[in-house]
Specification:
It contains 5 helices and no strands. With 73 residues, it is mostly helical. The chain has 2 domains: 31 residues; 42 residues. The protein is elongated.
């Protein structure tokens, strides 16, 4: 029985973290400038710019590929 409770607690913690991440992302998309969004992604996951096409990164950041090209160093 204790094992089942710890699994439920772990699941709840994972759900809370996922929800907080979603809220943080939406808040950033609504309040950050395009430059701030690019910089934030570069801080978190710079390797993504090496493996994911820019058009998909731009879409994720809710901007055009042209805007991303102007902003990314």
């Amino acid at each position: 029985m204790w094992n089942n409770i710890s699994i439920e607690r772990a699941w709840r913690i994972l759900q809370e973290k996922a929800l907080l991440g979603k809220i943080e992302r939406e808040t950033e998309l609504l309040t950050f400038t395009p430059e701030q969004r690019v910089n934030r992604l570069l801080q978190r996951s710079p390797h993504l710019f090496q493996i994911i096409p820019r058009k998909y990164i731009a879409s994720y950041l809710r901007m055009t590929p042209e805007t991303l090209s102007r902003l990314k160093p």
